[in-house]
Structures are given as structure tokens and as C-alpha cells.
Specification:
Largest sheet: none
Number of helices: 6
Number of domains: 2
Number of strands: 0
Radius of gyration: 27 Å
Helix content: 40-55%
Order of helices and strands: HHHHHH
Length: 198
């Protein structure tokens, strides 16, 4: 019984997508196609239902732009209100289904270094010296696209950054002997420079 319903659901989805695509072609494609697409919004990439489900970032951006009546621009052909609502409802449904499908999956976990604030606080806790600012000479942390300075994708370890870590291990206030007695330093040679391969 359930199996027999699946082709009908898929067929309805394809029909709704075909209608959605027709509306995009009518009101949006002139300005949002190919390499010359305005605002880098290439709606031609949403050429199938599967591509729409994969490109949720583009679908979300399209949804928000239409919800705010930013597009089409005032001097362009405007969709009727029922057509606009048809696009919005379809995009909302697809985005909701994709969100539910991947709910509970945070995506890949990226191994990252401490950001500058975390590194400074760790050194202060380990040494007991609250005036230390070991990261003041470090490059400014990137904020990635999300605006957070603890995003793993933005906290890569460059050769220059690694060199600064090595230099700090010889700092008179950061050496292993200066660590507060309330901490047990289990790996005193964690920042030891690797020996050259022979």
C-alpha cells in the first residue's frame, strides 16, 4: 500500500517543480542565469528537483529575497500574488523536508586549533598569571562566513602560526616550570620542535 503511493508523491513533486521552474524562467531567468547572473544568484543551477534539494543555500536565498519583495525589481515584470505564493510555498516545503532529513546531523567535525582568546585564557590558567597576553602577536582570527571566531573551518594552522607557538614555549613566563601547581602538565614536550628526518 505504502509502496504504491511513492510514485504518485514523486510525480506530484516533479509537477510542482516544473511549475516552479516555469515561473522562474518567466520572472527571474533573464537576470539570474550563467556567469553574468546578477548578485551571483544563478537560478539556472536549479534545473531539476534533485539539484534544488542539493542547493538548499541557493533555495534559501531565493526564498528570503521573494519574501521581502526584493525581486523581481520594480521595473521588471512582476508575478501575480498567487504565483509568488506558489513559489514561496514550494520552496518552504522543499527546505523543510531537507532540514528534517538531515536533522541531528551537525555535518563534519573539523579538527581546529584554539582561537586567540582561548589560547590566551588557557595560558593564563596554566601559569596563574592573569596579565599574560601571549596571542597579542598572533594574526587576527578569521570569522568564517558565520561571524564566529571559533568556527573550525576558519581556524587553520599556518606555518607562520606554528612558528609563533614554538617561539612562545621559550618565553620566560610560559615555560613548563612556570605552570601553576594546581595543574598537572602531562605532556611537557607537546610543543617540542620535531627532529629533522635523516
Amino acid at each position: 500500500m505504502l509502496a504504491s503511493c511513492k510514485p504518485s508523491v514523486a510525480s506530484n513533486d516533479e509537477e510542482e517543480f516544473a511549475s516552479f521552474r516555469t515561473l522562474l524562467n518567466t520572472y527571474c531567468s533573464d537576470c539570474h542565469t550563467g556567469e553574468t547572473a546578477e548578485a551571483d544568484v544563478e537560478l539556472n543551477l536549479l534545473d531539476s528537483l534533485s539539484s534544488l534539494r542539493r542547493k538548499t543555500d541557493l533555495a534559501q536565498r531565493t526564498l528570503e529575497t521573494l519574501q521581502q519583495n526584493q525581486m523581481p525589481p520594480p521595473d521588471s515584470l512582476q508575478p501575480k500574488e498567487n504565483e509568488r505564493q506558489k513559489i514561496l510555498l514550494f520552496l518552504k516545503r522543499i527546505l523543510r523536508e531537507e532540514a528534517e532529513k538531515f536533522s541531528g546531523d551537525p555535518g563534519p567535525v573539523v579538527l581546529r586549533r584554539l582561537n586567540n582568546a582561548e589560547y590566551t585564557n588557557s595560558i593564563r590558567d596554566l601559569t596563574g598569571i592573569t596579565t599574560l597576553d601571549p596571542a597579542k602577536e598572533f594574526p587576527v582570527d578569521g570569522a568564517a562566513g558565520e561571524g564566529f571566531t571559533n568556527a573550525g573551518n576558519a581556524l587553520s594552522m599556518t606555518p607562520a602560526m606554528l612558528t609563533k607557538y614554538f617561539l612562545h614555549q621559550d618565553h620566560p613566563e610560559i615555560g613548563p616550570r612556570k605552570f601553576s601547581s594546581k595543574f598537572v602538565l602531562c605532556t611537557p614536550n607537546i610543543l617540542q620542535k620535531p627532529a629533522r628526518l635523516k
